[in-house]
């Protein structure tokens, strides 16, 4: 970072976002319309017709970025106050890339029921909810209940944003290697929120055999140890042959490795036992499951990581601004599977087929055309549904 001290830079910024007025208050008549007495008219209009809140307030463009600080980046459970720099960062990315107004909110509770009730109570102020850095398996229950009980879109970016950009990268990696989604064998290392969401979206996209691995090894139905309800549910739609063993065992002849786990989990020797032209997405941060140079030496055909200092960054920034831009513009209640698939294809299709290279399967995360394309395709998917 060019020898910039992050602490001093954040101290200089004094926070990364602010709220600015959209109204010029220099004249008395404008002030009297923006606030009392003129503000009473839109208040009563909304009271009589609640849908007018989307026309007469900023709700139509405002979301909440909400965390409890239990799964922040690779730092773990560091608490709500310590999570604020991340939530502020997310808010400015929403604005910069999707022109979505986002308010960072960190909650001082870990109780799923209390979190749901708090978010439901504040929901009238927002057009959408982006959940962030909430640990598994609590995040599944929280998101599921909010989707069921709110009439605005709810999106847990750690799950679905990660799944969308992973699918986008895989679409292009498969195009480049001449392989088909339905015919490849995919091994996913990790069985937390991101891994489970990736698995579900890949299945929705037509993926064939998928095997998840955790610290215990391959996940399969009725495994007696280290299971939870979410793992049981995902086991029912993966690993059809009930393969057992460690990652080193199950990765043999796999076409694709997707890592959302820990540094060093994958070795060059394991890649050597994969199928021809193997695809490796090593997305552990800050240190991937295998470093790109080691993967290339082992014969990987396409390599991606979660880092910006290597080619092919699997970065959620490619997804969430456009997802919410499209969802807010379309006035959706739920962000559906069809919208997520459309978003993944939109990200992949930014790169023309004749420009795909092993080191160029993902668009630049700073390319603002990506969010516009994603938003358009999300709206189109909503219209078709």
Describe the protein.
The chain is α/β, with parallel strands linked by helices. Helix content is 43%, strand content 11%. The chain contains 16 helices and 10 strands. Helix 5 crosses helix 14 (320-330) and helix 15 packs antiparallel against helix 16. The model has no long low-confidence stretch (mean pLDDT 95).
* Helix content, binned percent: 40-55%
Content-based structural category: alpha/beta
* Ends distance: 45 Å
Summed over residues and divided by their number, the pLDDT gives a mean of 95
Element-level helix/strand string: HHHHEHEHEHEHEHEEHHEHEHEHHH
Number of helices: 16
Largest sheet: 6 strands, mixed
Supply Rg: 22 Å
Distinctive features:
385 residues; 4-stranded parallel sheet; 10 strands; 6-stranded mixed sheet; alpha/beta; globular
Structure in a nutshell:
By secondary structure, the protein is α/β, with parallel strands linked by helices.
Topology:
Elements: H1 6-13, H2 28-34, H3 40-48, H4 53-56, E1 62-67, H5 80-98, E2 101-106, H6 112-122, E3 128-131, H7 138-149, E4 154-156, H8 157-177, E5 185-189, H9 193-204, E6 209-214, E7 217-218, H10 229-235, H11 247-250, E8 256-259, H12 268-272, E9 279-282, H13 292-297, E10 302-305, H14 320-330, H15 337-349, H16 368-384
Parallel strand pairs: 1-2, 1-3, 3-4, 5-6, 5-8, 8-9, 9-10
Antiparallel strand pairs: 6-7
């Amino acid at each position: 970072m060019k020898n910039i001290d992050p602490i001093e830079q954040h101290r200089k910024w004094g926070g990364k976002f602010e709220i600015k007025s959209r109204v010029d208050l220099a004249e008395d008549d404008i002030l009297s319309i923006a606030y009392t007495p003129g503000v009473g008219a839109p208040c009563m209009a909304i009271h009589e017709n609640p849908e007018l809140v989307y026309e007469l307030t900023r709700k139509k463009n405002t979301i909440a970025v909400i965390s409890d600080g239990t799964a922040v980046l690779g730092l773990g459970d560091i608490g709500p106050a310590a999570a604020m720099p991340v939530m502020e960062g997310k808010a400015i990315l929403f604005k910069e890339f999707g022109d979505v107004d986002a308010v960072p909110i960190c909650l001082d509770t870990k109780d799923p029921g209390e979190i749901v009730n708090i978010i439901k109570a504040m929901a009238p102020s927002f057009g959408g909810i982006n959940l962030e850095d909430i640990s598994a398996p609590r995040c599944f229950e929280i998101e599921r209940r909010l989707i069921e009980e709110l009439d605005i879109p709810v999106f847990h970016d750690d799950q679905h944003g990660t799944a969308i950009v992973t699918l986008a990268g895989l679409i292009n990696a498969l195009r480049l290697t001449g392989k088909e989604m339905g015919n490849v064998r995919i091994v996913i290392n990790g069985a937390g929120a991101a891994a489970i969401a990736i698995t579900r979206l890949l299945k929705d996209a037509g993926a064939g055999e998928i095997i998840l691995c955790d610290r215990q090894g391959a996940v399969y139905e009725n495994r007696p140890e280290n299971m939870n309800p979410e793992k049981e549910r995902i086991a029912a739609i993966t690993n059809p042959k009930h393969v057992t063993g460690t990652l080193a065992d199950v990765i043999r002849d796999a076409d694709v490795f997707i890592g959302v786990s820990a540094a060093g989990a994958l070795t060059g020797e394991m890649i050597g036992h994969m199928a021809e032209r193997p695809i490796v997405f090593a997305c552990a941060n800050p240190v991937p499951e295998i470093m790109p140079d080691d993967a290339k030496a082992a014969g990987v055909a396409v390599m991606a990581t979660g880092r910006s200092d290597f080619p092919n960054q699997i970065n959620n920034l490619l997804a969430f601004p456009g997802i919410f831009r499209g969802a807010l513009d379309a006035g959706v209640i739920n962000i559906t599977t069809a919208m997520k698939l459309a978003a993944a294809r939109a990200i992949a299709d930014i790169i023309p087929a004749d420009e795909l290279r092993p080191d160029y399967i993902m668009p630049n995360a700073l390319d603002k055309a990506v969010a516009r394309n994603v938003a358009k395709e999300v709206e189109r998917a909503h219209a078709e549904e």
